[in-house]
Amino acid sequence: MKDMPFILGVSGGKGGTGKSFVATNLAALLSERFKVVLADIDVEAPNDFLLLGLQDLGDSEDIRTFFPIIDYKKCTACGACAKVCDTGAIVMAKGRPPMVMPRLCSGCKACIYACPYDAIYEGKRVVGKLFIRNVPTGFGSFKLVTGVLKEGEEHTPPAVVYTKRRAVEESKDSDILIVDTGAGSGNAIAAALQGSGVLIAVTEPTPLGVHDLKAILEIAKGIGTKTWIVINRSGIGPKDELLAVAKRYDVERVFEIPYSKEVVLSYAKGKLVVLESPNSRPARVLKEIADEISLLIVEGTTEVRR
Amino acid sequence: MATVRIAVPTERGGLDDFVYSRLGRTPTFTIVEVDVDTGEIKKVEVVRNPGAEAGSGAGVKAAQTIADAGASIYIGPSPGPNAYAALQYLGVKVFTLVGARVKDAIGKILEELKSS
User: Fold this and answer.
1) Which CATH class is domain A72-118?
2) What's the mean per-residue pLDDT of chain A?
3) Cross-chain Cβ contact B57/A99 below 8 Å
């Protein structure tokens, strides 16, 4: 066993392209040979468990993020904390100690560093729940880590970072950690993908798919991660533009999962296509991707044999 | 009771400008110092609202701007929950009114203050 597992990021920019579809099927396939952890870091709408046909998410713990606690004995109401607060979470009334608005706080800790009187302590605030459970599949079983942000919370990144950190801890003795992110290409997504050996960008042959693929590849470039592309629902539109983008961003591999009835049927049942229709074209492509990843895990390197 | 300072969200600012339709993202606040008893306007200032370009917490930043300008009355659109909490903490009285010129809005609220 290694100290750190191989981290595979699954993202894509656009929503609804099949990120969770790819992540869950790969987790099941890889669990036949490897110790796998699948982390559902789409904390605003995590639903890998639904795609896996599970009813419950397992044992839960609180997701806690930093929240300033002000020592009113030390505070001189100088306003230094309010000045550095980027999210406007600290309000200052003249001559009175600051008031912190919990939901606006992003947990950045700038106020602690700014306070000249050491009057701010590290408090914690519960912003969501984290769930861990074992998932048996027809191939093997793997560990599913799910982060869920509380309704009404304004900041996603702290919950994402916490879930990611816990997922890494939970995969200390595993071979691979698959990180399934939400849609988009903001801070939360970049934080979720950091440290990935390979990022699989799941996209689709539509103008929206092309546009958002560029955004996520830009993120990958920023964090220095190698990229593969999965063109999901291949066949519903022209793919020339996707391929041009892939070339421009030095994408290593391009896979195509055809638009097919088998996927829709398994999806509607809450079952994995690799188990429901193992001989279908989509299942075979997923198997091919899993095999490529297996090579990376075994070699402990991100060099791909062609 | 002599003078009060009233903050009104505005686009360019000034007594003839209209009350802006949003609090957090308003470009400016027109701060009007007025004698409550006579209704005489003593001073008019226009301050920029940093909330207009804030990533988040715009309403709270706007509330802070109002308090920093020394205003104790706010006239404008209904504040959101965060901004409302902040205004309360900052001791700023809230009057909801939109669709009027600043000077007319102030006149209306002064009438209301006198009759209450």
Assistant:
1) alpha beta
2) 93
3) no
